[in-house]
């Protein structure tokens, strides 16, 4: 185990970085305005001893809900996800301990303003309210400028974006920040975080394999990344992203602590060389952006329905929202991204159609069968 070299930052009463214990976090997967459901989710995560609980806000009604929830849970350490609306930063900052912004979402609003101006706006809100910041770079929503500039190296696009945003915050004399670079591919998570840590060893890192999917595969994907990175002294806080029913979200915390214990005690589990050589199902962990809870059941049904295709090297992505869904499914052989009443079926970047939750499995099976016929059985015949 190599020692971590990052500086320490403060997230409310919690300190991460340097020799501080690695913090374990999760997020509420409910609609924030559903006070009963969100309160229940927070209780589940508090009971599991989550160090940080992340909550999403999309609009001012969410913020009003946030205020009410904060009265009920005054001692929790909260992070908030600004989603696509950076202008909410000063409204949420008084109620939380950390703000996460995604550089790839800053171009959505006020296109006449520069990215730097928008970052400055977020920084001032954080500074005034003594909040930490997380620069959260996600493979499914990379800033379009970086995506274009580094179109032959998607990992470098993420790293350069993160490094440049760190420089902006440094120039604004704001040091209380961390970074995350997430992908659904364990190897890309390892590569991105190694590259970033080599260039900015001082910046604390939040680790996670985004959309890791259903247990046990999702746990294995996450373990691969965490074992490689944390043992190398990379990683100051972690999130295990699993597709679980809301009342089971505490399992993310339990699994995270188990992985950290295993790594610290030298219990590394060997990974077969052919792991993920066959069928790979990517599924997001669900969050407040999900507009239909049937999404979790659908992910389970997709795995069960595709058991017959396990030996074929195919990637099927099951995504729960419109924010990351379209982008995350582009790299999959077949992708589903779910709306309130319809599920969009994609083949790579091509949209095949929109189907009801009742119709989608039948349509997906047709495409899986056709892909097996075209990609694999023709090769076997030859």
CATH homologous superfamily grouping of the largest domain = Dihydropteroate synthase-like
Number of domains: 2
Q: Low-confidence spans: pLDDT under 50, at least 5 residues?
A: none
Number of separate strands: 15
Q: For the terminal residues, how far apart are their CA atoms?
A: 48 Å
Level-2 CATH architecture of the largest domain: Alpha-Beta Barrel
Would you give the CATH topology of the largest domain?
TIM Barrel
Structural classification: alpha/beta
CATH C-level class of the largest domain? Alpha Beta
Tell me, rounded to a whole number, the average pLDDT. Answer: 92
Q: Report the major sheet.
A: 8 strands, parallel, barrel
Q: Radius of gyration in whole Å, from Cα? A: 20 Å
Number of helices: 12
Q: Topology, please?
A:
Blueprint: E1 9-11, E2 14-16, E3 23-27, H1 35-47, E4 52-56, H2 60-72, E5 78-81, H3 89-92, E6 98-101, H4 115-128, E7 132-138, H5 144-149, H6 154-171, E8 177-182, H7 186-199, E9 205-207, H8 217-230, E10 237-239, H9 250-264, E11 280-283, H10 294-305, E12 315-319, H11 325-329, E13 334-338, E14 342-347, E15 350-356, H12 360-381
Parallel strand pairs: 3-4, 3-10, 4-5, 5-6, 6-7, 7-8, 8-9, 9-10, 11-12, 12-13
Antiparallel strand pairs: 1-2, 13-14, 14-15
Helix pairs in contact: 6-7, 7-8, 8-9
3D structure, described in words:
- With 382 residues, this protein is of the alpha/beta class.
- Helices cover 39% and strands 18% of the residues.
- The chain has twelve helices and 15 strands.
- The longest helix has 22 residues, at 360-381.
- The relative contact order is 0.11.
């Amino acid at each position: 185990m190599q020692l971590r070299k990052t500086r320490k930052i403060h997230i409310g009463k919690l300190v991460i970085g340097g020799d501080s214990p690695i913090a374990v976090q999760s997020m509420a997967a409910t609609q924030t305005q559903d006070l009963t459901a969100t309160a229940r989710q927070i209780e589940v995560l508090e009971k599991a001893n989550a160090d940080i609980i992340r909550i999403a806000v999309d609009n001012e009604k969410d913020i009003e809900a946030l205020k009410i929830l904060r009265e009920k849970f005054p001692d929790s350490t909260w992070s908030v996800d600004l989603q696509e609306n950076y202008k909410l930063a000063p409204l949420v900052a008084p109620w939380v301990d950390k703000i996460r912004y995604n550089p790839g979402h800053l171009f959505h609003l006020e296109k006449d303003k520069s990215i730097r101006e928008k970052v400055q706006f977020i920084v001032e809100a954080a500074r005034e309210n003594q909040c930490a910041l997380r620069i959260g770079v996600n493979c499914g929503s990379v800033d379009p400028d970086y995506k274009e500039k580094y179109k032959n190296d998607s990992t470098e696009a993420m790293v350069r974006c993160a490094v440049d945003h760190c420089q902006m915050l440094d120039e604004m004399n704001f040091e209380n920040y961390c970074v995350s670079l997430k992908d659904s591919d364990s190897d890309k998570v390892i590569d991105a975080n190694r590259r970033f840590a080599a260039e900015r060893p001082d910046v604390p890192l939040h680790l996670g394999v985004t959309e890791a999917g259903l247990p046990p595969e999702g746990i294995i994907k996450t373990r691969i990344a965490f074992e490689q990175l944390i043992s190398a002294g990379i990683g100051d806080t972690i999130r295990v992203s699993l597709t679980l029913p809301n009342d089971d979200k505490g399992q993310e915390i339990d699994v995270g602590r188990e992985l950290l214990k295993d790594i610290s005690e030298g219990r590394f589990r060997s990974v077969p060389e052919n792991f993920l050589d066959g069928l790979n199902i990517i599924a997001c962990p669900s969050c407040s952006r999900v507009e239909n809870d049937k999404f979790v059941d659908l992910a389970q049904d997709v795995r069960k329905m595709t058991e017959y295709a396990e030996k074929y090297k195919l990637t099927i992505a099951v995504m729960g929202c419109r924010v990351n869904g379209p982008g995350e499914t582009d790299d999959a052989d077949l992708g589903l991204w779910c709306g309130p009443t319809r599920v969009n079926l994609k083949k790579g970047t091509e949209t095949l159609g929109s189907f009801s939750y009742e119709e989608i499995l039948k349509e997906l099976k047709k495409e899986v069968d056709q892909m097996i016929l075209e990609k694999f059985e023709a090769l076997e015949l030859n």
